[in-house]
Hints:
The structure holds two protein chains of two kinds. Chain A is mainly α. Helix content of chain A is 74%, strand content 0%.
Amino acid sequence: MSAPGQLAGALSPRRTWRGIRRSNPVGYLFVLPYVLFFAVFIAYPFGFAFFLTLHNWNIVRPEKPFVGTRNFEILFSDPLFWKALANTAVFLAVHIPLQIVIALVLAVILNQPLRARGLFRTAYFLPFVTSGAIVSLVWLRLYADDGLLNQALSSLGLGSVGWLSDPRVAMPSIAIMATWKNVGYYLMIFLASLQAIPSQLYEESYINGANAWQRFRYITFPMLNPAFILVVVLSTIGGFSLFVEPFVMTGGGPLDATLSLVLYLYQQAFQFLRMGYAATIGVVLALLIFVVTLIQRRFLEREVGY
Amino acid sequence: MTSYVGSRVEGLGGTARRVLFYLLLALGALGFLLPFMYMLSTAFKGSRELFDVNLIPREPTLDHFKAVFTQIPVWRALFNSAFVYLLQTASVLIFSSIVGYALSRLQFFGREFIFNVILLTMMIPGQLLLIPLYVLVVNFGWTDSYQGLIVPGMISAFGIFMFRQNFKTIPQELIDAARVDGASELTILFRIIWPLSAPVLITVGIFTFMGGWNDFLWPSLVNRDINFQTLTQMVTLYGIGGQAGGQAGAVMASSLIAVLPMVVVYLVFQRYYLQGIAGTGVKG
Lengths: 306, 284
């Protein structure tokens, strides 16, 4: 936004002084709580995270030997880090398309003049307001080898699936559960932007003789672009932040198939007390999120003109 | 009903479409609600029918709830969660609205710069700060206490952002009139702006409270002592740890207790959730 301009202004001492003298002092007083909070709970931890990446520390003892970039070198040759990264890719490959298709279909239907759509909306949003840790306990039982899902499948004569016990299936299972948990939220984003499309656009398309598919393709879909990007970016961040579902349901197994980056960070920090290494995972994770979502924005952003 | 342009010229095909829509909606609702129905039914099922697929218990029992209340201090955890997150929510509402007021209605040099910094902080992933924040809380001696849960979430960038956007729309004449009467800025904020901003206060309040109540990771790092555990934390540890003894009924009963308050809050304040999403998601 205007940050560069502000910075240039702040760099000129005379303009700065004039600006401050004309300011309402109460303004500074009112932002003071945030400035203090920011310094202690955001800026300092942010700096300390980067400091830790260059050091080894087991948190119990005060010594923090400087190790340079060794933590990064170890990380990039750590098979479990790459495994966790690959697992994240599997999660996202299932989660994002599923999320978008279900959210979009339900949002388009809920945007029709149907009775009881408020009731349906309530049902779809319910998983989002409940704790991920608690609903993981429920899904753990639904997914169990002798659980409800497999009972239903075998009663239909379809055999059973190792939802959480088969290494090839476990991560997609978690992605399905995460979709169930969050799709209501994305549905609301789509619904809000569907309702913001001016109805005059549709009126004009009728006059021009467009059919339902053309209306969706050339009006609805382009107008949803900002919501679409938001949903992709937020689900990606959610995928990189995956923790509580594997923590509760699988502990990262079987055969590390559901080890997520944050779960790995957690294990390194709080089971092996490798604070420097865990901080390194955190920093790399943050950079990954930043780069990936930036690329997504670049590729998905379309000029919306009408 | 006919005002909607999408269904105007469909004619006969409209009825078929409508049936298809309801079918899809009902299928969706079943999928979303089934895990909750399973939780509810298992919590009340006796041990003989625990693993049967019937959704309505044939012999409903409260045994699992009795077991939960004797095995873990549920009341204590309920109090901890309510106390900690109500206090945190109150703090977020007060401090974030003070900052939001300054950023929207007071003129001072560097205002936009501070706002941009706040927007930037919203982009920092929580995992980056997790370990340093934990170290900080350990150094403050706040492990196994309420402070460790409350203080790191006392102000929220989300709250500041929401308040700033909303306070901007309040007419300047109201504020000028109060200033002429000699009201202080705090009086203006809490006596004039707050009563006009109930929806955004409720929205920020429920999102803050919900975020805290549902969290597992942070409380499980900071508080190991069972006396300071939150409800979500205690029930999750009960479910994955040995205490429940693999008792599906007891685990589902305790899950129901942990989830129920959020479901009630959601059903009561439903429309404010939608405002929160529309406010941040689409316009932001």
